[in-house]
């Protein structure tokens, strides 16, 4: 899978960065024994997923591969195995 660009899009990076910040917030407040802050961090994690999906829907994610390219790739991989 070294040749794929899986996750190398603005939508993926933004979603992961926001989620990472949420995990950090939740972790700090978990150690501080602050329940409200912990759940606020979890909300930020979920927000990261929503933002990533919204950006993907806006066209900033990985474009879907056309069927003819997918079929050609599968045919080439089965030919290479034989």
Question: What do you see in this structure?
Answer:
With 82 residues, the chain is an all-alpha fold. The chain has one domain (10-81). The chain has helices spanning 10-31, 35-60, 67-81. Helix 1 packs antiparallel against helix 2 (35-60). The radius of gyration is 19 Å and the shape is elongated. The relative contact order is 0.16.
Keywords, separated by commas or semicolons:
82 residues; mainly alpha
Overall shape: it is elongated
| Rg computed from alpha carbons, rounded to a whole number of angstroms | 19 Å
Q: Could you tell me the strand content as a percent range?
A: under 5%
Straight-line distance between termini: 20 Å
> What is the average per-residue confidence, as pLDDT, rounded to a whole number?
87
> How many strand units?
0
Please, what is the oligomeric state?
Answer: single chain
Largest sheet: none
The parts where pLDDT drops under 50 for at least 5 residues are none
Task: List the secondary-structure elements in sequence, H or E.
Answer: HHH
Give the helix tally.
3
Task: Tell me the domain tally.
Answer: 1
Helix proportion: over 70%
Structural class: mainly alpha
Structure summary:
This protein has three helices and no strands. The longest helix has 26 residues. The chain is elongated.
Q: What is the strand and helix layout of this fold?
A:
Layout: H1 10-31, H2 35-60, H3 67-81
Helix pairs in contact: 1-2
């Amino acid at each position: 899978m070294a040749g794929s660009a899986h996750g190398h899009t603005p939508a993926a990076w933004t979603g992961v960065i926001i989620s990472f910040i949420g995990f950090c917030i939740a972790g700090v407040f978990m150690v501080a024994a602050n329940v409200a802050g912990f759940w606020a961090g979890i909300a930020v994690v979920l927000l990261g997923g929503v933002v990533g999906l919204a950006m993907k829907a806006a066209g900033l994610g990985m474009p879907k591969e056309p069927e003819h390219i997918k079929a050609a790739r599968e045919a080439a991989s089965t030919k290479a195995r034989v």
